[in-house]
From TrEMBL:
Keyword terms of this UniProt record: FAD, Flavoprotein, Oxidoreductase
InterPro entries: FAD-bd_oxidored_4_C (IPR004113), FAD-bd_PCMH (IPR016166), FAD-bd_PCMH-like_sf (IPR036318), FAD-bd_PCMH_sub1 (IPR016167), FAD-bd_PCMH_sub2 (IPR016169), FAD-linked_Oxase-like_C (IPR016164), FAD-oxidored/transferase_4 (IPR051264), Oxid_FAD_bind_N (IPR006094)
SUPFAM superfamilies: FAD-binding/transporter-associated domain-like, FAD-linked oxidases, C-terminal domain
Molecular function terms, GO-annotated: FAD binding; oxidoreductase activity
Domain FAD-binding PCMH-type: 35-214
Organism: Kangiella geojedonensis
Protein name, as recorded: FAD linked oxidase domain protein
Alphabetical GO biological process terms: respiratory electron transport chain
Cofactor(s) for this UniProt protein: FAD
Family to which the UniProt record says this protein belongs: Belongs to the FAD-binding oxidoreductase/transferase type 4 family.
């Protein structure tokens, strides 16, 4: 029996509790396609105190909660399908404070990633955590999934930029974690438990984030390569001479989708099975010369077939389109996605083995590869034949998942590199985490959320 919402209305302002069908559908899901949203209601708090009061209300009435950010996730982590109350942080979208001396900004968790990037730029600084959904993803969601993106090889993950958090635990207690301190050697750093916790321990309401200097003259090299086992040599060659800010890859199959969809010309004359996109900070002529030297060496040693270097910021942006437009281009085909990772030295072996698995079991499926190869994060996108029923397609992909994930386990990889576990990857957690690890994780959740109201059914 669903509880009355009357007492909840006393906590929130009149327009901050939504029960209409459009809102329930909009806020009750993320970018996954497999689940039907069915939340109880949508709460839109404006302060940490309101969030705490909602969590206390939920404990009292035994109501499950689903935290909701920009809902751009691909693992079902923000899906409410069993009458949960969704706590959406859209109205908690303010920059609270900025300290130029320490280059730290404090903001509410509903701030859009791109909003924070623009704030940094306005202050001659840079927030480097970047990905395709930066225009709609929220900082709180990025923290909850420890989001990565295209700049990880140089700048790391979201975790590396979080100096402090305000959180509301599953008990409804407010914790101030680390408070922006650079040095703090006082035992367990609870901040890092909440980063990547997918809303299962509590809700991040505010974050103190460090910024850095803006990159100068970002330059892009797009290279055609003959085979992926040359990537390690390619990466080593360039890393010795230039500080890469991005090292991406995509397949010829991906390129063939993007070019006609966006009316783009072939970026280089030579057709190749794979392409790498390298970005670096060309702050001097010496760095440019070093990069060109690496390129020429690669041509001589035949681990590069062809390439093009941007000559302006506009050209750099044009070259990025070949990589950044892939997800949007294939979205109409409703791809089955696997966001996976291995160490960079094992990328070639992993990709080859997975290609063999898919070719053996589903030769009629198209496979589109792209990803952040510099940090070992690969995006495997499987496209169904046009005449195949979608539910049948998903089931077929799920049948082959254990074969793919067993290869991951052998190579010491992860079933989820940057989108979290949520509902979609929950059945496969044991391929990356041991039974002992999972038991400790469950114990941590019980300590912060003893009544199991925080995003229940996700992760475990």
């Amino acid at each position: 029996m669903q509880p009355s919402l009357d007492s909840l209305r006393n906590i929130l302002e009149a327009d901050c509790l939504l029960t209409d069908s459009d809102s329930l559908s909009q806020y009750g899901k993320d970018w996954t396609n497999q689940y039907t949203p069915a939340p109880l209601a949508i709460a839109l708090p404006k302060t940490t105190e309101q969030v705490a009061a909602i969590v206390q209300w939920a404990n009292k009435h035994s109501v499950a909660l689903v935290p909701s950010g920009g809902r751009t996730g691909l693992s079902g982590g923000a899906v409410a399908e069993h009458g949960e109350l969704v706590i959406a942080l859209d109205k908690m979208n303010q920059v609270i404070a900025f300290e130029s001396a320490t280059q730290q900004v404090k903001c509410q968790a509903g701030v859009i990633t791109e909003q924070l990037q623009q704030f940094a730029e306005e202050n001659d600084l840079y927030y480097p955590v970047d990905f395709a959904s930066s225009g709609s993803s929220q900082i709180g969601g990025n923290i909850a999934t420890n989001a990565g993106g295209i700049k990880v090889i140089r700048y790391g993950l979201t975790r590396d930029w979080i100096m402090g958090l305000t959180v509301v635990t599953g008990k409804g207690e407010v914790l101030e974690l680390n408070a922006g301190l650079i040095k703090n050697a006082t035992g367990y750093d609870l901040r890092h438990l909440f980063i990547g916790s997918e809303g299962t321990l509590g809700i991040v309401t505010e974050a103190t984030i460090k910024l850095t200097r803006q990159p100068k003259n970002l330059t892009v090299l797009l290279l055609a390569i003959p085979q992926l086992d040359k990537v390690k040599e390619l990466l080593n060659t360039f890393q010795k001479e230039v500080d890469l800010t991005a090292f991406e890859f995509f397949s010829e199959e991906a390129l063939l989708k993007v070019m006609p969809h966006h009316n783009l010309p072939r970026p280089v004359e030579t057709e190749a099975p794979f392409y790498c996109l390298l970005e670096f900070d060309a702050t001097s002529d010496d760095i440019l010369e070093n990069a060109l030297g690496c390129f020429e060496s690669g041509l001589e040693q035949e681990f590069i077939l062809d390439g093009v270097m941007s000559q302006s910021q506009q050209q750099a942006a044009e070259l990025w389109k070949y990589r950044e437009y892939i997800s949007e281009t294939i979205s109409s085909r409703r791809p089955y996605k696997n966001d996976i990772s291995v160490t960079p030295d094992k990328v070639s072996e992993f990709l080859g083995r997975v290609n063999n698995i898919v070719a053996e079991h589903y030769p009629e499926f198209e496979v589109i590869w792209f990803g952040h190869i510099g940090d070992g994060n690969l995006h495997l996108n499987i496209l169904a034949p046009d005449d195949m029923d979608y539910a049948e397609f998903v089931k077929a992909c799920e049948n082959v998942n254990p074969l793919i994930f067993e290869v991951l386990r052998e190579l010491g990889g992860s079933i989820s590199a940057e989108h979290g576990v949520g509902l979609l990857k929950k059945p496969y957690l044991n391929y990356t985490r041991t039974e002992a690890e999972i038991n400790y994780m469950k114990g941590i959740k019980a300590a912060f959320d003893p009544n199991n109201i925080m995003n229940p059914g996700k992760l475990f």
